[in-house]
Amino acid sequence: MARLVDYAPRYRQIEQALRERIAALRPGDPLPSDAELSAQFGVSRMTARNAMQQLVEEGLAIRIPGRGTFVAEPPAHRQAHRLMSFTAEMERRGRVPSSRLLAREIRMARPKEAEALAIPAGDPIVFLRRLRLADNEPIAVETAVLHGRCAPIVMAADLETGSLHEALARAGIVLRRGTATIGAEAATRTDARLLGVRVGSPLLVERRVIVDAHGKRIEATESRYPADRYALDVSFDVEPPATPSRNE
Fold first, then answer.
1. CA-based nearest residue to 168, from 181, 158, 153
2. Ramachandran region of residue 181, left (φ > 0), alpha (ψ -120 to 50) or beta?
3. Considering Cα of 37, then 40, then 46, then 51, what sign does the dihedral take?
4. Which SS3 state, helix, strand or coil, does residue 122 take?
């Protein structure tokens, strides 16, 4: 029976173990059934199913009725409706993620930061800035502020070769949902120096707020991507045309 550590929810531990397996497998390779995971980790089938379902929802695995669960073919880009860490996203693409830590400090929240996290101005927050890389190629300049209760976790975490979201999950802070706005901006001198682009080059800029399982705001992040190195895939429904009124 596989051993689960005590400090994270059991389904999260199974989920992380599956992520590590998937990283070493190829699309189409079979994954364990719920019954096999239940026996391996000593948990209920429901717990095992919840762990696998998270990976299905992220597009890492696919269930085929009557056949089983398999490693999914990685999409070319991130799905806009899915919340996925940069580390997990790059690993899914078969690239090696890493980060260069530019700033990490605990300080008082400024007004806009406090508004983003729904806390009083002056409350403690963690300020974090990293250059995110894949196969050593700069992909994004990421600036985040996190709720003060994350401070011991963030300040101790390996944020150059490890995942911030995985560190939070191991400590019991489970991120669940997020909202984001996406726009285009010109690269500043700082962007140009860090990303290796020209000043004024087009950037895709994503600003998002992420909440935990209780709906409390944990993280507010701005990610700045060179437009030729990153994209988002969007699925949508087509709204039917309005029916003309009789008076028209």
1. 153
2. beta
3. negative
4. coil
Q: Which domains, and CATH codes, for the chain?
A: 10-71 (1.10.10.10), 78-233 (3.40.1410.10)
Among 87, 89, 83, CA closest to 176: 83
Contacts of 183 (CB under 8 A, 6+ apart): 204, 205
The pairing of strands 137-147 and 175-186 is: unpaired
Q: Say which amino acid occupies 32.
A: P
pLDDT digits (tens, 9 = 90+) for 143-166: 999 999 999 999 999 999 888 988
Q: Is the pTM for the entire model greater than 0.85?
A: no
CA dihedral over 54, 87, 147, 207, signed as positive or negative:
negative
CA dihedral 32, 175, 140, 163 (to 10 degrees): -60
Integer Cα distance of 97 and 131 in angstroms? 11
Amino acid (one-letter) located at 131: L
